[in-house]
Design brief:
CATH topology: Ribose 5-phosphate Isomerase B, Chain: A
Protein name: Ribose 5-phosphate isomerase B
GO molecular function: ribose-5-phosphate isomerase activity
Pfam families: LacAB_rpiB
Number of helices: 6
Distance between the termini: 26 Å
Structural class: alpha/beta
Shape: globular
Keywords: Isomerase
InterPro entries: RpiB, RpiB_LacA_LacB, RpiB_LacA_LacB_sf
Number of domains: 1
CATH class: Alpha Beta
Bound molecules: D-ribose
Length: 147
């Protein structure tokens, strides 16, 4: 997929990792839109998940960071246009794209080092959805009641 833009957001726990990941995204030649937060003042991770979801367009990816990656990914996945995968390494990042067609990757800044997160993000951005049987499974994620 040709990537138009990459949106990135975090809570106070993810500020430092966000700086590193933004640099990595720029080095890959992508446009990166930083939605904050940008300091260590305590904020609520759902606000940043919802903000990023509201901006996410087709052909764009998102990157979300909180302390564990858990809260911010749960909040992001409440949105119909988001399939957010919390990833811990290149393996999970690759499969999040190949099998789950994730369009948002989440990291736990208190869990993962910047080097591993950067490698995982690069893998996420370059990996295509495999389709086939995974297409059917991804479609089944949506609940009938919500269709
Ligand atoms: C904030 O202290 C922390 O709860 C948050 O960053 C995240 O880990 C929640 O899932």
């Amino acid at each position: 997929m040709k990537i138009d833009k990459i949106f990135i957001a975090c809570d106070h726990a993810g500020v430092e990792l966000k700086v590193e990941l933004k640099e990595a995204i720029k080095k890959l030649g992508h446009e990166v839109i930083d939605l904050g937060t940008n300091n260590k003042n305590s904020v609520d991770y759902p606000d940043y998940a919802h903000l990023l979801a509201s901006k996410l367009e087709p052909n764009c990816y998102g990157v979300l960071i909180c302390g564990t990656g858990i809260g911010i990914s749960i909040a992001a996945n409440r949105h119909e246009n988001v399939r957010c995968a919390i990833c811990h390494d290149e393996f999970t990042a690759r499969l999040a794209r190949e099998h789950n067609d994730a369009n948002v990757i989440a990291f736990g800044a208190r869990v993962i080092g910047a080097g591993v997160a950067t490698a995982a993000l690069e893998t996420f951005l370059k990996t295509e959805f495999a389709g086939g049987r995974h297409e059917r499974r991804v479609k089944k994620i949506e609940l009938e009641a919500d269709k």
